[in-house]
Each structure stands twice: as C-alpha cells, then as structure tokens.
C-alpha cells in the first residue's frame, strides 16, 4: 500500500529537473519546509501543470518515498495571480517567501509563520496599505513567531507612535495586523529598526533583496 500524506502549504520555489519534471520547495504547516517532485509537470497537458509555481497555496497530497516526496495531487486555493501584473508586489512577495525559507526547517511545524505569510501576501495586493509597511509588519512579527524578537530598542529616541505601532504589530491577532496606516516619519523609524534587526538575526545574503531595493531606494 502506498504511503500518502496530505499537507497544507505554499510553494516557495521550484526548479526544473530531468526533461519534464519540477522539484518544488513547499512550506507546509505540518512538516515545515519540504522538497517534492512534480513528475511531468512541465508538460502543458500534465495534471500538475501550473500547480507548483511559486505562491501557489493549497493542499498537496504527497507520496512519501524513502528519501523524498512526490506530489500526487494538488488542490490550489490561491495562486496570487495579482502578482503577475504587479512587479513591485511580486518582488516583496518573493522576499517574504525567501525569508520563510530561511526560518523554516523540515519536520518543524510552523503554522503561525505560514499564516503570517498568507495574510502578508494578501496585504501586498491591497492598495490601502504601503508595501513597505507590509514588509515591516511581516519581518517584525516573524521575529516574534521564531522567538527572536528583542523588543523595542533601548537607548533610541523614538516617537511614541513608533513604540505603539511596534506593540500593536507584535501582539495583535494576525487578521488585524494590516488594518492601520502610519505617517511617513513613523514608517521611516519602523523601517530603520526592522532593517537593524534583519542585519542582526539574518546571517546570510537574501537574493530577493537586490530587486526589492530598487523599489525602496
């Protein structure tokens, strides 16, 4: 009897392998970051064609082999198709995917981080909140989820509104995180702090930052 597992997650990246296959990295709620083969998925008529692209979010039925997974079926709930027409949003979204890839590990359940990623990607497609604010919220709350958030920095002169925003970001329910706006001055302070924390807690270069910096500088 074949050994199947069902997981819920999002495709972080994929790469071609062989003549017609993809190998996908999927961030799952149940098993963390896993690698799975999508056989013949590069053929336009294949059952899995278009279902293992980055940002595809849904349920994946996997055959668990001795040393790897193979995708048998995929039920995609959200393709985040809006990023196809929104280069800036896609660059931010790709950064979020890469940051999640940095944090998550195989067989490490991380439902909170996956939920944060999902809400953050949806927020990037809204016009009423700046992408830079979405990024700050995502990065700070990810630090909280991963147990690395150091708190509001001591010894820095910060606006009261900045301190309040950081408290709101780090404690509010995920579905309330993207419900506010900030002045440019407060967002600037929040941005600076977020980047300081990134430089402290991320110990490797992030490729997606090169493209993202085009929109932020």
UniProtKB/TrEMBL annotation:
Alphabetic keyword roster: DNA damage, DNA recombination, DNA repair
InterPro entries: ARFGAP/RecO, DNA_rep/recomb_RecO_N, NA-bd_OB-fold, RecO
Top-level lineage group: Bacteria
Domain DNA replication/recombination mediator RecO N-terminal: start-end pairs: 6-79
GO cellular component: bacterial nucleoid
GO biological process: DNA recombination; double-strand break repair
Transmembrane segment boundaries: none
Gene3D superfamilies, sorted: Nucleic acid-binding proteins
Alphabetical list of Pfam families matching this protein: RecO_C, RecO_N
Role description: Involved in DNA repair and RecF pathway recombination.
Similarity-based family: Belongs to the RecO family.
Protein name, entry field: DNA repair protein RecO
Organism listed in the record: Butyrivibrio proteoclasticus (strain ATCC 51982 / DSM 14932 / B316) (Clostridium proteoclasticum)
Gene: recO
């Amino acid at each position: 009897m074949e050994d199947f597992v069902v997981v819920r997650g999002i495709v972080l990246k994929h790469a071609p392998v062989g003549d017609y296959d993809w190998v996908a990295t999927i961030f799952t709620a149940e098993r963390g970051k896993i690698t799975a083969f999508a056989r013949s998925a590069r053929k336009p008529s294949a059952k899995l064609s278009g279902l293992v692209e980055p940002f595809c979010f849904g349920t994946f039925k996997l055959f668990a082999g001795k040393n790897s997974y193979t995708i048998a079926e995929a039920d995609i709930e959200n393709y985040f198709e809006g990023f196809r027409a929104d280069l800036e949003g896609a660059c931010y979204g790709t950064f979020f995917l890469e940051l999640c890839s940095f944090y998550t590990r195989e067989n490490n359940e991380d439902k909170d981080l996956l939920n944060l990623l999902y809400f953050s990607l949806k927020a990037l497609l809204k016009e009423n909140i700046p992408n830079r604010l979405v990024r700050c919220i995502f990065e700070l709350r990810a630090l909280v989820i991963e147990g690395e958030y150091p708190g509001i920095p001591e010894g820095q002169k910060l606006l009261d509104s900045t301190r309040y925003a950081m408290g709101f970001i780090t404690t509010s329910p995920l579905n309330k995180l993207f419900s506010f706006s900030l002045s440019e001055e407060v967002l600037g302070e929040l941005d600076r702090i977020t980047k300081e924390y990134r430089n402290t807690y991320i110990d490797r270069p992030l490729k997606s930052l090169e493209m993202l910096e085009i929109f932020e500088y």
